[in-house]
From TrEMBL:
Residues 296-362 form the OB domain. GO terms for molecular function: 3'-5' exonuclease activity; nucleic acid binding. It comes from Atlanticothrix silvestris CENA357. This is Trans-splicing intein-formed DNA polymerase III subunit alpha C-terminal partner DnaE-C. Residues 90-179 form the DNA polymerase helix-hairpin-helix motif domain. InterPro entries: DnaE2/DnaE/PolC, DNAPol_HHH, Intein_C, NA-bd_OB_tRNA. The lineage of its organism: Bacteria, Bacillati, Cyanobacteriota, Cyanophyceae, Nostocales. It holds the Pfam family tRNA_anti-codon. GO terms for biological process: DNA replication.
Length: 451
């Protein structure tokens, strides 16, 4: 216990907990300070909050995850991690939708919708105008209907382009490139109609549309849009281009992810993901299947080129460093939006976890060695020893052995894939398969991506 000796009134000041080194303390009777009160009182509060959040997540997962995403919308790493959690929970994240989205992340029909506030170039005034027009009337039927009902002083051309590129109009017209081409004409058409209305010159169809609903009212409204100009038909953007623009405007891949097709096979290549890098020991050897988000070429003091990479997988984003010797060998692979499998080690400098890249290869060219075993072979110590000996012989230089070997244990009604570990990675996949076949093992090469 520590006793307070003197106290002095100094006027109105900021208030802080009374404390001593290494402990948080609070004053109790007779001017004494009670150690550990902070820990006891706060552990109760933390425990209660943990109970509340666990209850909400278990019983209201959609609402809970939507609130969590909204509260952390400014933290890219956290949002990506929570989106991955949603995927694991079976909750689908949908891109913004002009007829359903609100300001923030919103639960809707068993899914979570991106909010308009998460879209770049869409400001508060534009959002307010969209929500007001939608609440006052029916759903938007077309791009022309959307532009005609909104205040185009609040929703400018750049805002509309962003909404189209991120997929907000997909339920109306999935061809995003067609919408972009149409926008060049529709926007001017809508501005002209807005000026006519402002000057009191509305056209005949607008005037008819102001009368109470009749069987002819919908017809007059549809006729009002017959004059909407249309661009010549064009093909949609390629899937990878659509995803790239989604990522640029939302900060994430939402409708799909370039690595999602590899979700089942990736764990066989590497036992960890990027979100777990901070938990690994220094010099831990690992590989990761990643997307390249950015490549920054820099020069060392000696004038040698190297690169700093921004990478991501389905769980997180991270930084990776390619030193000169490695850069000289793989620089032609380092292109933004490329899917790579990279090999490297963990390094911690200045309290920052980095991945030091030692090698890389496009996922399209990666081939794994597959060894098929029946249950009898898998349980035979001599057979496993023979397999181990062959793989160790094919490993050679451990620094160069990077190709994974996958074991397949095939029973009558089951098929189990087992990654054999770093110590059994090999240098040359084809030579390894030939050696295994010569030793009467069933082995073959399997590309990471099946064509």
């Amino acid at each position: 216990m520590v006793k307070i000796i003197t106290r002095k009134y100094v006027g109105q000041e900021n208030v802080y907990d009374i404390g001593v080194q290494h402990d948080h303390n609070f004053a109790i009777k007779n001017n004494f300070v009670a150690a550990n009160c902070f820990n006891k009182s706060h552990s109760t509060a933390y425990g209660y909050v943990t109970y509340q959040t666990a209850y909400l997540k278990a019983n209201y997962p959609l609402e809970y995850m939507a609130a969590l995403l909204t509260a952390n919308s400014g933290d890219t790493d956290k949002v990506q991690r929570y989106i991955n959690n949603c995927t694991n929970m079976g909750i689908q994240i949908d891109p913004p939708d002009i007829n359903r989205s609100g300001l923030d992340f919103t639960p809707a029909a068993g899914k979570i919708l991106f909010g308009f506030s998460a879209v770049r170039n869409v400001g508060q005034n534009a959002i307010a105008s969209i929500l007001e027009a939608r609440n006052e009337g029916a759903e938007f039927k077309s791009l022309a209907d959307f532009c005609d009902r909104l205040d185009l002083r609040a929703v400018n051309r750049r805002t509309l382009e962003s909404l189209i590129y991120c997929g907000a109009f997909d339920k109306i017209e999935p061809n995003r490139q067609q919408l972009i081409k149409d926008l060049e004409l529709v926007y001017d058409w809508a501005q002209s109609r807005a000026k006519d209305r402002a000057s009191g010159q509305g056209n005949l169809f607008d005037l008819l549309g102001e009368f109470p609903n009749t069987s002819t009212n919908n017809k007059t409204k549809s006729k009002a849009f017959e004059s909407v100009p249309k661009a010549n038909p064009v093909l949609d953007f390629p899937p990878q281009e659509k995803l790239r623009m989604e990522k640029e405007l939302l900060g994430f891949y939402v409708s799909d992810h370039p690595l999602k097709s590899l979700r089942q096979i990736t764990p066989l290549l590497t036992p960890i993901n990027l979100s777990q890098l901070g938990e690994q020991r220094e010099d831990t050897k690992l590989c990761a299947v990643v997307m390249l988000n950015n490549v920054k070429k820099v020069m060392t003091k000696k004038g040698d080129p190297m690169a700093i990479l921004q990478i991501e997988d389905l769980t997180s984003q991270s930084e990776a460093v390619v030193f000169p010797k490695t850069y000289e060998r793989i620089d032609f692979l380092l292109q933004v939006d490329t899917r790579l499998i990279i090999w490297g080690k963990i390094d911690r400098r200045d309290d920052q976890t980095q991945l030091i890249v030692e090698d890389a290869e496009p996922v399209e060219t990666v081939q794994m060695v597959m060894v098929e075993l029946n249950p009898q072979q898998a349980g035979d110590i001599e057979e496993l020893h023979r397999l181990k000996t062959i793989l160790q012989e094919q490993s050679g230089d451990k620094e160069k052995a990077k190709m994974p070997v996958i074991g397949i244990v095939q029973a009558e009604n089951s098929r189990k894939l087992v990654r054999l570990g770093w110590q059994f990675c090999v240098q040359d996949s084809r030579i390894t398969v030939q050696a295994l076949q010569n030793a009467r093992f069933t082995a073959h090469l399997k590309p990471l991506i099946s064509t």
